[in-house]
């Protein structure tokens, strides 16, 4: 894009109508390129499970007289169909969040309810790996938001924490109040994210390691969805991570006026 670098105290070098038009054109081109890439990516992502389903169906026809083989192929078809369903669901979520629909009104939402819902949705996957999810932090926080979107965002963070952690580890999720925001943090002691990838994991379809991600059934859309939820709420999401040690994702959402004051740790002034 066009960058205006300001040196000293004079007027910015790219001010004026010409620079504005240039900036608009560049921005329009960039948006168009992102859209083209996105459609190409979607096509590619859909091709893999659809291709696998076709091959499995063919193989099944060839093995019709062997019920055990048919069972095995049917199980793999179900797995591919699940993956396809998840991808389509996430694409729909993402397009809704990107403003294909008007944003629902922001209302007071209990953070505890959001956390409980997300823990509930990821509990089975965690249990299957012997992973414990510990809920802590300050109870009783209320944010301004859309409960379903917030639950989706925290669910995605927890699902990632489970997917990218070894068996029998612990995940912590909790909220605290800070400068007018609820900070919801999800901490795992998993594989972590290499420094050079940290800035990019919120991009659509970006995965640190394709082979590692596909074995977890990932789509590369989960964090893009979290980022959109955050920005729809006037909040943000950030990551701290250390390879081999683990990761903490922090989602910041504006507190509602309804949040009761905390007598133990008053908000710092300013
Ligand atoms: P995916 O569906 O592949 O998990 P996401 O958008 O949710 O897609 O995440 C993008 C990438 O960021 C993942 O493929 C993974 O490489 C990395 N990642 C996300 N969360 C974690 C985590 N908690 N620990 C380590 N890596 C993570």
From TrEMBL:
The keyword Chaperone does not apply. It is found in: Cell membrane. Its EC number is 2.7.13.3. GO terms for molecular function: kinase activity. It catalyses: ATP + protein L-histidine = ADP + protein N-phospho-L-histidine. Its main location: membrane. Residues 41-257 form the Histidine kinase domain. It is an enzyme of class 2 (transferase). The keyword Nucleus does not apply. It comes from the Bacteria. Keywords: Kinase, Phosphoprotein, Transferase, Two-component regulatory system. This is Sensor-like histidine kinase SenX3. It comes from Geodermatophilus maliterrae.
